Amino acid sequence: MEMRVTTTWHGKRHFSATGASGHTVSIDAKPDAGGEDKGARPMELLLMGLTGCTGIDVTMILERMRQPLEALDIEAVGTRREEYPQAFTEIHLTYRITGDVQPAKAWRAIHLSEEKYCSASASLSARIVPHLVLNGAPVPDPGVGDSAED
Amino acid sequence: MEMRVTTTWHGKRHFSATGASGHTVSIDAKPDAGGEDKGARPMELLLMGLTGCTGIDVTMILERMRQPLEALDIEAVGTRREEYPQAFTEIHLTYRITGDVQPAKAWRAIHLSEEKYCSASASLSARIVPHLVLNGAPVPDPGVGDSAED
What we know:
2 copies of one chain form a homodimer. The first copy, chain A, has helices spanning 42-64, 103-117, 119-123, and strands at 2-9, 15-19, 24-27, 69-80, 88-99, 127-134, 137-139. Chain A is α+β, with helices and mostly antiparallel strands. The two termini of chain A are 30 Å apart. Strand 4 (69-80) of chain A pairs antiparallel with strand 1 (2-9) of chain B.
């Protein structure tokens, strides 16, 4: 099973990347790193891929659980090494869910994504720490063993 | 050192992700996975981040080495596990360089990126295998110890 992306240089630090899906994404460095800010930073794309991956999982799992999602956003905050290479060491993911969703089912969906389905999460070496805010209120992680189902 | 991205759900499997740089990227699943193909696949974004990261490094290093780059594209082919999570296990990066660039310097720039500077490469758990095609001809990897400088 393979996935392919081709990335083309456009001068200075500006690139465009196109995957097999046909979608093109612009990439650039910030001005103080010699770039012209014509696109997202490469490391932002890793966090975007991670949030998109787990977001797709969570919407699909909650749909199957018949939990009506009204809104969802996911914030990723990645901590990076100070020294080069400045890899992510820890990534905190905050899932903000609005809807008549049971807290235990929301956590169950998040754990299923992170532990079983999310290919992006499994491709990154950083420790990933999830958080849930449901209808504006933080809900502590019940832990894997305490989830509502199984 | 932190980096932040916020990703918002737009129904079905469609998301938009915005980083601190202000650039927004659209993410979606393919139709046979419940998506509407309104954006790149999450796993493509990981490869895009990787190619952009090493591409920025290589252009910067070759500039410092006064090697005149005319064109550069980088192709990433990621092999994924068949089972879930379908993480990348190996990623082949082919650097296609056009210009009056010395082969040993091109390889030196690639090795410096992969081993020392590229934060995306260091954030991924897959084995990364570089290849060089210089002015249309493949140039074998001289190996780290055999590079022209140090």
